[in-house]
């Protein structure tokens, strides 16, 4: 396959505020609320309580419109709000890429937390996320962001445009480790 297949794209640029973590004029905003997260947290009753209160936004993904085809790169801002379900920190659903052999970079712009990663044979690895730290998610690793702080955890992500998202396997398998805040301290178990 040739990366120049298809119509020639005109070069373009986007402004990203590295202090606030805001992308100017995104083409698409994906929003996940507490009610989209059923099945992901340990304390299901606490999640239902949260949904019943005001069903808060867990995270938003701000994207530019880019063809999801070989040769292009997708870029987005991932904004994960602070909070807990029971004592478990807010997190993204997490996914493998559908083309599992594709990597991803996460440059953390703001906030603190973890990138939790796992392979299909159950090996787990986490990397701390904090401002100005870049996490490299290698091919074949499922990945989930977890916010342990009290401000949004914001990252700038770049990955192959044809990678795709496989949520189904993680929805079934889960991750071997979860992150909690207990008595003001992080607990990973
Ligand atoms: C895409 C990249 C991020 C996530 C976003 C939300 O490959 O990893 O943009 O989509 O952080 O997470 P999730 O697991 O719900 O897609
Ligand atoms: Zn990804």
Topology, please?
Blueprint: E1 16-17, E2 22-23, E3 28-33, H1 44-53, E4 57-63, E5 73-80, E6 84-85, E7 88-89, E8 96-97, E9 104-110, E10 112-118, E11 124-130, E12 134-137, E13 142-147, E14 153-160, E15 165-166, H2 168-173, E16 179-182, E17 185-188
Antiparallel strand pairs: 1-2, 3-4, 4-5, 5-14, 6-7, 8-15, 9-12, 9-14, 10-11, 10-13, 16-17
The structure holds D-sorbitol-6-phosphate and zinc ion.
Q: How many β strands by DSSP?
A: 17
Give the full name of the CATH homologous superfamily: Jelly Rolls
Report low-confidence residues grouped into runs of 5 or more: none
Bound molecules: D-sorbitol-6-phosphate, zinc ion
Structural class, from secondary structure content? mainly beta
Tell me, rounded to a whole number, the average pLDDT: 96
* Strand order in the largest sheet: 3-4-5-14-9-12
Q: What is the CA-based Rg, rounded?
A: 17 Å
- For this structure, what is the CATH class? Mainly Beta
Q: Count the DSSP helices.
A: 2
Which sequence of SSEs, written as H and E, runs from N to C?
EEEHEEEEEEEEEEEEHEE
- Looking at the overall shape, the CATH architecture is Sandwich
How far from one another are the termini? 44 Å
- The oligomeric status of these chains comes to single chain
From the 3D structure, determine the CATH topology: Jelly Rolls
Query: How many domain regions?
Result: 1
Global outline: globular
β-strand amount: 35-45%
Approximate helicity band = under 10%
Instruction: Describe the sheet with the most strands.
Output: 6 strands, antiparallel
């Amino acid at each position: 396959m040739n990366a120049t297949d298809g119509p020639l794209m005109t070069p373009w640029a986007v402004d990203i505020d590295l202090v606030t973590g805001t992308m100017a004029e995104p083409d698409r905003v994906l929003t996940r609320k507490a009610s989209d997260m059923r099945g992901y947290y340990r304390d299901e009753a606490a999640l239902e309580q949260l949904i019943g209160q005001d069903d808060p936004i867990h995270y938003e993904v701000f994207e530019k419109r880019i063809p999801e085809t070989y040769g292009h790169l997708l870029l987005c801002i991932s904004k994960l709000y602070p909070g807990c379900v029971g004592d478990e920190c807010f997190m993204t659903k997490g996914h493998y890429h559908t083309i599992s052999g594709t990597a991803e970079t996460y440059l953390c712009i703001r906030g603190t937390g973890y990138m939790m990663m796992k392979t299909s044979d159950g090996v787990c690895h986490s990397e701390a996320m904090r401002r100005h730290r870049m996490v490299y998610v290698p091919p074949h690793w499922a990945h989930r962001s977890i916010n342990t702080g009290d401000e949004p955890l914001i990252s700038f992500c770049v990955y192959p445009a044809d990678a795709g998202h496989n949520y189904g396997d993680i929805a079934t398998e889960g991750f071997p480790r979860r992150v909690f805040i207990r008595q003001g301290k992080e607990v990973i178990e």
